[in-house]
Amino acid sequence: MNFKEKVKRRFALSEDGYRNLRDSTISCMISDFLLMAPVVILFYLVADIIGDNEFAMNLGVWQYALVTVAAVLLIALAYHHQYNITYFRTYKESERVRISLAEKLRKLPLSYFAKKDPTDLTVRIMSDCSMQESAMTHWFPQLIAAMIYTSIIAVGVIVFNPLMGLASLWPVPVAVCIVLFSKKVQVKHFKRKLDKTLEATEGIQECLEAARDLKMNNAGRRYLDSLFEKMDKVERYEITAEYTCALFVVSANLVLKFGIVTTAMAGAYLLVNGSMSVMVFIAFLILISRLYDPFYVSLQNLAAMLNAELNLARLQEIEDQPVQTGGTEFRPKGYDISFDHVGFSYDGRKDVLKDVSFTAKQGEVTALIGPSGEGKTTAAKLSSRFWDVDRGRITVGGIDISGIDPETLLSCYSIVFQDVVLFNTTVMENIRIGRKGASDEEVLAAARSAACDEFADRLPEGYITVIGENGAKLSGGERQRISIARAILKGAPIILLDEATASLDTECETLVQRALSELVKDKTVVIVAHRMRTIEKAQRIVVLSNGVVAEQGTPEELKEKEGMFSRMLGMQASSENWAL
Question: What's the pLDDT score for residue 511?
Fold first, then answer.
């Protein structure tokens, strides 16, 4: 890996981001050198005032004024150029990074999201990206520019007068080493602070999402007490991290101050010995003040960069994740879904599915049933490549779906899962997500088929009512009907239904099932269900238990076997009678 690639990985940069970093570093270095101009002008002014020395230029006041104005203009232009490159371009790069992360997350398999908390991902996209933005605008370019600038000046000073060069420059490497050697301690405290910040952020999000349940159980005060404790920990760790950083940075800056003392002492020694003129001594005293100025800030930047490495590594970790890939051409011979000795686990240790084989045929309704936690929903999601199987294979129309691009594959699926996700827009636009570009008439027809009229007519603005975040203004059954309307509107050849009518009352369930019966004609339909009423019209039943297919066949065949399916029917009938 070459230098450029190492920098790009370390700071989670794109190709444009690397070029911006290079250009902004050069711009900062030019600004640092131009800031030497006032020091040089001041030196020659002092030389002319003292007079009768090798550096006297004998310039007039107006000449010094003209040179000063020219220097100020050059510095202003340099700062303007630096601002445009360092800030504006970096903000564009920050935009690209956020969009790139969103695109990356869109392509990642759901197995990645199962391992990550949504709050953690949100913090990465928002907070960690902001940290990267600060690093590329305020810290890193100025730090590298100051190091290059100081190195060049150092070489010139040592060549001119080795003793004075050493006397004035020795604090620089010592100060840098103090900060660098503190990396382990600083990173440890910063990581603790980051962990506690994530805990508090997760707690706040959880509190907002569970507000109703907390109120119902009179647990609000207890939860808030624990949340306040988490926030207090964030404050304590934040203060500790800041103090730790300040301890080393201030110590390093203090060492730099000693450079002025040693420069003066070495200069006095050379003056007494007659080895150096007064003007050269004055030049070194003026130079030393300008030499250290960039480093006072750069030491703080160096400490900030050490802490930012954790945030940058978290961004790069997302970029390094493998994505699901595949061909974009998908022309199956029909839409039969076949599981061939499929095995799958979420964590790589405990198998959810061990050896599952069955076929859901086109034109039939295939129901997946079995006890809770036996992999029914997992099987449905695997059939649409939400995850990739560990063993065996799944085919659609004879084509292995592991070789098909997920977005291409999902264009053939209409999916209604138990957990419905809605957006903070109108009812109509939430349904239109099923098929972009659908006309209002088509959206309304799908809505009526899913029995959405019943609740839409009661909304203040009907189908153009904004329903709040995740459909907060609607009941669970109403949200489910919108999800079903999406599937109806999409009209894909494969239908996956996971407890699609679980949140509906009996009357609405009857209406929706009537709509679904129209939806599923000549299509491959897989239903995940617990209630036997949901699978009354299923042509094939697949019973999953202990990660394998315990039994499969038509409802009549399974009833005759008097196996698990028959027992489940009996238990549900007994439960319904008990409830009555």
Answer: 65
Q: What is the mean pLDDT of residues 431-441?
A: 89
Residue range 271-293: mean pLDDT, rounded? 79
For residue 417, tell me if it sits in a domain: no
The conformation of residue 520, written as its DSSP 8-state character, comes to T
DSSP 8-state class, residue 327: B
> What band does 579 get if pLDDT is binned at 50, 70 and 90?
very low
567 part of a folded domain: yes
Helix (H/G/I), strand (E/B), else coil: 213 = helix
pLDDT at 194: 82
Write the pLDDT tens digit of every residue in 211-263: 777 777 788 788 888 888 888 888 888 888 888 888 888 888 888 888 888 88
Q: CATH code at 525?
A: 3.40.50.300
Residue 340 lies inside a defined structural domain of this protein: yes
Residue 86: strand, helix, or coil:
helix
Pair 511, 558 in one domain = yes
Between 435 and 88, the higher pLDDT residue: 435
Same domain, 452 and 557: no
Q: What pLDDT does residue 572 have? A: 63
Domain stop point among 463, 487, 511: 487
Q: Model pTM greater than 0.90?
A: no
| Domain final position from 273, 301, 319 | 319
Closest by Cα among 178, 232, 230 to 200: 230
For the stretch 467-491, pLDDT in tens is 887 777 888 778 888 888 888 888 8
* Total Cβ atoms within 10 A of residue 446: 26
Looking at the structure, do residues 580 and 520 belong to the same domain, yes or no?
A: yes
Contacts of 162 (CB under 8 A, 6+ apart): none
Q: What b/e sequence results for 303-334 when a residue is b if at least 16 CB atoms lie within 10 Å of its CB, and e otherwise? A: bbbbbbbebbebbbebeeeeebebeeebebee
In a domain, 34, yes or no: yes
Q: Examine the domain organization and report whether 552 and 457 are in the same domain.
A: no
393 lies in the same domain as 256: no
Question: How far apart are the C-alpha atoms of 239 and 401, rounded to whole Å?
Answer: 52
335 & 251 share domain: no
Domain holding 366, by residue range, is 325-412+492-580
Nearest-5° Cα angle at 409, 403 to 411:
165
Distance CA 437, CA 429 (A): 11
Q: Of 315, 299, 307, which is closest to residue 187 (Cα–Cα)?
A: 307
Main-chain phi, psi angles of 345, to 5 degrees: -140, 150
Half-sphere exposure of 555 (CA within 13 A, CB side): 15
What is the total count of domains within the chain? 3
Q: Does 96 lie in the same domain as 49?
A: yes
